[in-house]
Write a structure and sequence with these properties.
About 40% of the residues lie in helices and about 20% in strands. Helix 1 packs across helix 6, helix 3 crosses helix 5 and helix 6 runs antiparallel to helix 7. A hairpin with a 2-residue loop joins strand 4 and strand 5. By secondary structure, the chain is an alpha/beta fold. The chain has an 8-stranded mixed β-sheet, sandwiched between helices. A two-stranded antiparallel sheet has the order 4-5. It contains 12 helices and 10 strands. It is globular.
Length: about 350
């Protein structure tokens, strides 16, 4: 194996900071079987809403097969512009309460998986990572009308017990995240993976509810306050579009009803643990819940969410919002824009 340390470059302006040590590490790769574009949505939500710094960047030329996954470039009339190179980076972010954590995200490497895994294990040891929490998504024959399911795996039984909605024993196609989980476990590093279940008929479209659920599970496992507001709103729009499609077809209604029946029969005998339960299976007491609420209310995130929920308390924002409503704005009431951009659900399959 070639030297794993030559696969990445550290950012000298950040890599020496003392607060990089002892953090939680979140991991998500795009590409392989990314049902519902869950990792892409989580990546965008975290990097677009949270303060972050680049810690390390991996050399794409050594890890990606450009002919198999050609990057995008724009041709404008008579010249080329805006080349979008593939990125695989390690960032330091700060959650809603200002707590720092690490986030490794980008394309799934096409080649040199073992070398890449060795590089990540080295970084985890260098920064004395508390725990690695990674996320991916898989298509499942489940209805969109039920809570998003998850299969949890790793070497932390206390964080996995009672959470999974499906615990199969099967041979599957491996992803680089699976190899990384194995190597982290062998290195004695705590790791928990979350495979989010996306309805198979929505696997090719963005499905925000699965991304919201993914952020909740990551936040619970890593004790972080992660943003979900924008994805929740996008999820409501997508669910309205899906409801319209279901209502318009008796055949689709039948398919969804069958999936609902099977889901309910399967989950009747399953008992899942609440994300609010502590590690010792006890509910947090009033003092612990009160401290958590006080910390949240004192955070910048609480103020921003207050402005969004009660615009009447902010005249300027309310006036702007009213004006946009009166003039019609740019709202797409048909859901067509979402489908054309890839953010809405694709048409249901007709069997």
């Amino acid at each position: 194996m070639l030297d794993p340390l030559t696969l990445f470059n550290l950012n000298p302006e950040v890599a020496g900071d003392a607060d990089l040590n002892g953090l939680q590490l979140l991991v998500g790769f795009t590409g392989f079987a990314e049902a519902g574009h869950v990792v892409s949505q989580i990546r965008d939500e975290l990097l677009e809403t949270l303060e972050h710094d680049l810690v390390a960047s991996f050399d794409a030329d050594q890890l990606i097969d450009y002919r198999a996954r050609r990057p995008q470039i724009f041709f404008v009339e008579d010249h080329l512009t805006d080349y979008e190179p593939p990125l695989l980076n390690l960032y330091r972010l700060y959650d809603g309460l200002g707590e720092p954590f690490l986030f490794l995200t980008g394309f799934e490497p096409d080649v040199q998986w073992e070398r890449f895994a060795a590089a990540v294990v080295h970084l985890a040891k260098t920064f004395d990572v508390q725990q690695v929490n990674w996320i991916h998504s898989i298509p499942m024959p489940v209805p969109h009308t039920r809570p998003v399911g998850v299969t949890v795996h790793g070497n932390r039984p206390d964080l996995m017990a009672g959470i999974s909605t499906w615990r199969p024993s099967a041979q599957i196609q491996a992803a680089v995240g699976h190899i990384l989980e194995l190597r982290l476990t062998q290195a004695g590093i705590d790791v928990v993976g979350h495979a989010m279940h996306v309805p198979h008929y929505l696997a090719e479209a963005e499905f925000p509810p699965a991304a919201v659920a993914g952020l909740e599970y990551l936040g619970a496992a890593a004790s972080l306050v992660l943003p979900t507001d924008r994805l929740r709103e996008a999820g409501r729009d997508v669910e309205r579009q899906i409801a319209e499609q279901v209502e318009a077809s008796a055949e689709v209604k039948g398919v969804v009803a069958t999936l609902e029946k099977r889901y309910d029969e399967y989950t009747e005998s399953s008992v899942r643990r609440s994300l609010l339960v502590k590690d010792n299976d006890e509910l947090a007491d009033a003092e612990e819940l009160g401290a958590a609420v006080e910390a949240y209310l004192a955070s910048p995130q609480a103020e921003e969410e207050s402005e969004a929920l009660w615009p009447e308390n902010h005249p300027d924002d309310h006036e702007s919002s009213t004006e946009e409503t009166e003039t019609g704005g740019n709202t797409d009431t048909t859901g067509q824009a979402g489908r054309e951009s890839g953010t809405g659900p694709r048409d249901f399959p007709r069997e």
